[in-house]
Design goal:
This protein has about 300 residues and is mainly α. Helix content is about 55%, strand content about 5%. The chain is flat, with a radius of gyration of 27 Å.
Length: about 300
């Protein structure tokens, strides 16, 4: 549910109307109040005219709130499922990352915390620092003053098996609360949310957590997974081609040095070229440089001797 919710584009009134159709009029309820629809007293089914009047009347105010909540959920998902591959989060489970996120944003009185908290106001859940502090007596306030520090403390002092989130019960009157409960369920069960490498939307991989592409259909009728298979194949071909070009160039430059020991400029240039090329290869692996840019560099320097 939460994946579908964050993909609505509430800058468009058509998507807001679709939300009401998909989740009924409960989508109008907020964490502060239940929406009162006075003209439902006479009957339970809205006419098309009544429905259009309803979403036009409520769109401006409600869409602002929904966009704010969408953005908050995206930040939580990006952090908890480490969408951007932060090294300090790699050894933690999703439940542990959420523990870090929740308690650090709470301590820093972050507006993001209060947005998420409002979605969970009717959910009884145990996920705070106090029980953790009772287990690890040496933890200080400074240890949970930042994401990195609390993540490091957890890695160095043991896991959070005794502090796993537990939903004891809930009252769900809003779409925000339903999304929050869905998110906590995903986190509790150490499931994975990813961003599709083709369409850029969030998705839950089917079975393999290594999946990079979702099953959404695109305008050409093919799914992202089908498109991704072609992209992966073409990238492999390109990578193989560039690897072959790199090895040929490396071998040629090494041979030039060996055949001309009396020309020190050749050796000096070879060492400089090799050092810079190794840095570029590392950059490609890290995703900072494209394989095409690396190929361009090899072609540009392959015939240069010094």
């Amino acid at each position: 549910m939460i994946i579908d919710f964050i993909e609505y584009d509430f800058t468009k009134i058509e998507d807001y109307a679709k939300l009401l159709k998909d989740y009924s009029l409960c989508a109008l309820n907020t964490t502060d109040e239940m929406y009162d629809i006075d003209f439902l007293d006479e009957h339970d089914i809205l006419t098309q005219e009544e429905f259009e009047r309803l979403y036009n009347d409520t769109y401006k105010a409600r869409s602002v709130e929904l966009i704010k909540i969408q953005n908050a959920f995206r930040e939580v998902i990006d952090f908890v499922f480490n969408i951007y591959n932060y090294s300090f989060l790699k050894e933690l489970k999703p439940s542990e990352r959420y523990f870090v996120f929740k308690n650090v944003t709470n301590k820093n009185n972050n507006n993001l915390y209060w947005t998420i908290y409002s979605c969970s106001s009717n959910v009884k859940i145990n996920y705070d620092i106090h029980s953790f502090m009772s287990k690890y007596k040496d933890i200080t306030e400074d240890d949970y003053s930042s994401y990195k520090k609390l993540a490091s403390y957890i890695k160095n002092h043991g896991k959070l098996n005794d502090n796993k989130a537990s939903i004891f019960g809930f009252t769900c009157n809003t779409i925000e609360t339903a999304c929050y409960i869905t998110l906590v369920h995903i986190i509790e069960n150490n499931l994975v949310i990813k961003k599709c490498k083709n369409c850029g939307k969030y998705f839950l991989p089917d079975a393999r957590t290594t999946g990079l592409y979702c099953n959404r259909k695109q305008v050409n009728g093919k799914t992202c997974k089908e498109v991704g298979a072609v992209i992966t194949y073409n990238e492999k071909l390109k990578t193989d081609e560039v690897t072959r070009l790199y090895r040929q160039t490396l071998s040629a430059k090494k041979m030039l040095v060996n055949r001309n020991p009396d020309i020190p400029e050749y050796l000096n240039y070879y060492n400089e070229w090799k050092k810079e090329t190794d840095l570029l290869r590392k950059s490609v692996k890290e995703g900072k440089t494209t394989i095409s840019e690396f190929k361009e560099w090899i072609e540009k320097t392959r015939l240069k001797k010094y």
